[in-house]
Structures are given as C-alpha cells and as structure tokens.
Amino acid sequence: MSAPADLAAAPTAPVRRPRLFARPCWAGLVGAVLGLGIALTPSLLPRPWLYEGIIAGLGAAIGYGVGTFFSWLLRRPLKVIEPGPAFKHRAWVGLAVLGPLFSIYFLLLGTGWQNEVRTLVGQPDEGLSTGVIVAAVAVPTFLVAWFVARLLRRFNGWIGRGLDRILPTWVAWTLSVAVIVLLVV
User: Fold this and answer.
1) What DSSP character marks residue 90?
2) Euclidean distance between CA atoms 182 and 185, whole angstroms
3) For 41-168, where are the alpha helices, taking DSSP H only?
4) At what angle do helices 49-75 and 85-120 cross, to 10 degrees?
C-alpha cells in the first residue's frame, strides 16, 4: 500500500530546533571557561565545596552571557565580517579540545588555592579530589542558569512581540525588559 501521489510529492518544511535547545554560542562557551577560571580564584577565607561549585557554575554562566553579548555586538551592530566555514570548524574543534583542558586546569588551580587558604587559617587540607566534587556542582548550576536565561530571553521576546502590536516598538521592548527585570528581582 503506497501513499497518494500528492502526499508523497508535497515538499516538507525543514525541521527547526526550538531556540531553547539551539547550539550554544562559541564565544559564549569561551566566556564560560574564562568565567569558571575567574570564579575559582582564591578568596580570603576558605569556601566549602558546595559554595565553590555554585560560585563556579554561576561564574561560568555569567562568562557565557558576556561572551554571547560580545558575539552579538560584533555580528549585529558592528557588522564585522563573518568567518568562513573552515575557520568556524577549526574554532569549534579547538574549543572542544582546549575548553575541557582549561576547565580541568582551572579546577585544579582553584582546589589548590582553596587548600592553601585552608592551611593558612588552620583548617585541614581537603585534597585535590574536591575539584571533582566542585565540578559536579558547577556543571548542573551552569546548565540550570543557562536554561533559565534562555527561558527568560524567550519570554522577553514573547512579551515584546505582543506589546509591539499595540505600542510603538521602543516602548514595547522597554516594557518587556522591565517586566522581565521585575520578575527576576
């Protein structure tokens, strides 16, 4: 039994992934790795592994946001020339190799620094295994923050487009951002 000829010949629209689960931004991921490293710098007092992991995950999320902002800034308002596909491929491969290596390096450095601070204040050294626990807390923290940010961005677009039908564009998008800020704060 075959399908009718008109159904088989009908063109199918390309399947589009929802923006919520779209591929992450390359510059955002570079920013996330740098944000992770910055968040793991030593503090004046030792931090427990749970706080260290939460701070590292939020630092990575903030770094992702900063990197994504700079990517948007270069592409849209400044209209910098888009790199070619070969360069983009090499950049993604480089990030796939160097990103995890730098993340592990930053985790080891951060754990070492925290252990030095613990020793200076007379607390026992927790060892390098704490880095694994910090990573186990930081990764889900980053993913939750990243997902919530994408949800808020999507909600902002929905509100802005709805208000844009009845208000001037600049008023609609300003109110949309204000609503999101009020919801978050």
Assistant:
1) H
2) 5
3) 49-75, 85-120, 130-164
4) 150
Give the integer Cα–Cα distance in Å for 159 and 14.
27
Q: Tokens 């994408």 label which residue?
A: 150
Tell me the residue type at 64: Y
How far is 121 from 112, CA to CA, in rounded Å? 14
Residue type, 51: Y
* 185, pLDDT greater than 90: no
DSSP class of 137? H
pLDDT digits (tens, 9 = 90+) for 125-176: 888 889 999 999 999 999 999 999 999 989 999 999 999 999 999 999 999 9
CA distance 50 to 27: 28
CA distances from 9 to 1, 15, 72 (A): 16, 17, 40
Phi-psi region of 144 (alpha: psi -120 to 50; beta: other; left: phi over 0): alpha
Task: Determine the Cα angle at 141 with ends 180 and 120, to 5°.
Answer: 120
- In this predicted structure, the answer to whether residue 177 has a pLDDT above a threshold of 80 is yes
CA distance 119 to 175: 51
Residue 148: predicted pLDDT: 93
Whether the Cβ atoms of residue 32 and residue 149 lie closer than 8 Å to each other: no
Calpha distance 126→121 (Å, rounded):
13
